[in-house]
Design goal:
Residues 129-327 form the D-glutamate N-acetyltransferase-like C-terminal domain. This protein is α/β, with parallel strands linked by helices and 337 residues long. It has helices at 21-29, 54-59, 81-89, 106-115, 153-166, 178-184, 198-205, 229-239, 265-276, 297-311, 324-336, and strands at residues 7-12, 34-39, 64-67, 93-96, 119-121, 140-146, 171-174, 214-217, 243-248, 284-290, 315-316. The protein contains eleven helices and eleven strands.
Length: 337
């Protein structure tokens, strides 16, 4: 699947920034591809790029409108269809990471045929995955896990890739969600893979590699989230992680979209090790990544210091304070291997 930039990021009328995390993520990590955003009335998200119409985007050389939103169930609201049809009629391609195939909607299929635009359903793949085998494979792997969904797992591994490559380390980001696939150009949306094949898909995403190579695997959901724990567990087994980093948002009390209480970081460390031992008896926690966006700097630094001392691993906000300590720990692990 080749998705042609530059992009117009469609944000619809989402209720908050988290619902627009696909679009915002693309802007954060591939800003050179993002020409503008299209927001409908009532949209409560802003990717920080110019607002423009589809006609404006076409005139600016945009090739693809990316539906940059996520929602429960990955559905396409009916009132967004008009904008997608307009984009196709203007000759743009349309790409989405939702759970519905664009071509399954007659108006969209007809507009694509009429305007000549391509439809890209990133959550769907023609790849046929095997079941996971759990056999030890060479190379090193880091997985991000979370106390909840939408806590920074993708941003953490992308920040790790940037820092590790700057140090001359052999490291690759491995995408397991639609935003990551848009950013990297490769991967699979794990939550759209049939349950029997989740671990096998992750083994395909992060295959056997040179002993010194690091695969930085994007985590999904949480082992404690009643909606997504099954996906998180299959991902953990397929990753065969040598190290994992716990991602956390400190101001939440319940998990996103449900009423269940947020687990503690120690709960996540213990559960991840207990479940991860199945495919890697040497699995270990190598750090904590905290999204401190809602905290003042002094409060954030104090929290990170407390967490690092309590859990005896580096703790940081990857975006605010960098990931040098996390990479130092991984280099130390590699030196002891």
């Amino acid at each position: 699947m080749v998705i042609d930039p530059p992009y117009l990021i469609f944000l619809g009328d989402v209720p908050d920034a988290l619902a627009a995390k696909t679009g915002v993520g693309i802007v954060d990590w591939r800003p050179e591809w993002c020409i503008g955003q299209l927001r409908l009335e009532g949209c409560q998200a802003d990717a920080g790029i110019p607002d423009m119409t589809i006609a404006d985007a076409k005139a600016r050389g945009v090739n693809t409108m990316v539906v940059g939103v996520v929602n429960a169930g990955g559905v396409l609201p009916p009132h967004w269809i008009t904008s997608i049809v307009e984009a196709l009629d203007a000759g743009l391609n349309v790409a989405t990471g939702l759970h519905v195939r664009l071509a399954s909607i007659p108006e969209i299929a007809e507009a694509a045929a009429r305007g000549g635009g391509n439809l890209h359903d990133v959550r769907f793949t023609d790849e046929r995955f095997a079941t996971g085998k759990g056999n030890k494979r060479p190379g090193r792997r880091v997985l991000t896990v979370g106390t909840d969904c939408s806590v920074g797992k993708k941003y953490t591994v992308l920040a790790l890739e940037r820092e590790m490559r700057a140090r001359g380390m052999d490291a690759d980001f491995r995408a397991t969600g639609q935003t990551g696939v848009f950013i990297s150009g490769r991967g699979a949306a794990i939550d759209a893979v049939a349950a029997d094949f989740i671990s096998g898909a992750v083994e395909w995403i992060a295959p056997a590699a040179d002993p010194g190579h690091w695969d930085l695997i994007e985590g999904q959901g949480s082992l404690f989230h009643p909606s997504f724990a099954g996906v998180s567990l299959g991902l953990l087994h397929g990753a065969q992680a040598d190290a994992f980093i716990v991602c956390h948002e400190p101001t939440r009390t319940t998990m996103r979209g449900v009423s269940h209480a947020l687990p503690s970081i120690q709960d996540v460390i213990d559960m991840t090790i207990a479940c991860g031992l199945l495919t890697n008896p040497e699995i270990t926690c190598s750090g904590i990544a905290v999204n401190t966006q809602k905290l003042g700097e002094d409060e954030a630094r104090a929290l990170l210091k407390t967490l690092a001392e309590k859990h005896d691993v580096p703790a940081t906000d990857p975006i605010r304070f960098g990931v040098e300590g996390l990479v130092d720990r991984l280099e130390t692990m590699a030196g002891k291997a």
